[in-house]
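User: Hello, can you help with two protein structures?

Assistant: Certainly.
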Amino acid sequence: MTNAIHWPEWVPMAGHHLRVSGVHFDAVRIQGAHGEVVAARLIAEARGDAGPVIREMSGARWMYFLVAPGTVEDHAWPLGVQRFGMSRTVTYIGVPALAGNTWPLGWYSEPTPATPYVEPARLLAALGPIGT
């Protein structure tokens, strides 16, 4: 789905660009199949409007859940979850455009006017045990 009406300033117009976490967003990263399961749960719980989730389509197939800037440190994340945006680190996150060729990155769930970021509490709930 491409929401051409809502194109946040940090989303490039074409291809993909690196953005510093902690400025426009913080990020929570989960690897491979586990990340895909969590993203699917999150989207189902949010009835399709979960906020921005970026997927890497090669390599480790990371899923990046973009939360509001300054919020990643406010929560206790389980093992296996990496968090970016903390004040003492600088991390660049690849952000794809909403349309066109963005390989190897793509949107699993796009930002929308109603949900510009993933809600951390909802993401934590989606991180529940796999297989339930």
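That covers the first. Now for the second protein you mentioned:
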Amino acid sequence: MIQGEVLSFDAVKGYGFIAPDDDGPDVFLHVNDIVGDRAQVRPGVIVEYVPEEGAKGPKASQVRALGDDLDVRRPAGRAVERPDGEVDVLSPREFEDAITEMLLRAEPMLTGSQILHLRGRLGTMARGYGWVED
């Protein structure tokens, strides 16, 4: 089993990507390969999985959520690359939702105004890296 961080996961489309701990290429994640509670698999969650070679590149099977690891950091400027070579870019709403959730899990005592301030600063940085649509 290998561990990695879920970079993206769209429950409606049924797929996403994992960044393996060994800094290898991102790994495709399909909803049918999740073992256990599928609701636990979301961006920022650490998972363990069995690596396989899929038709379009690295693929995860037997994926099991281990929990959140707020200390895991993606290198600056690293976007989520899909097997087709395209890069996922978040909408402003998706980014705000993800950042708000992360801040609340990391520091539940933050005030609303603190969250809005931090979210704004992070949003400016994310747009500069091209992680969020303008």
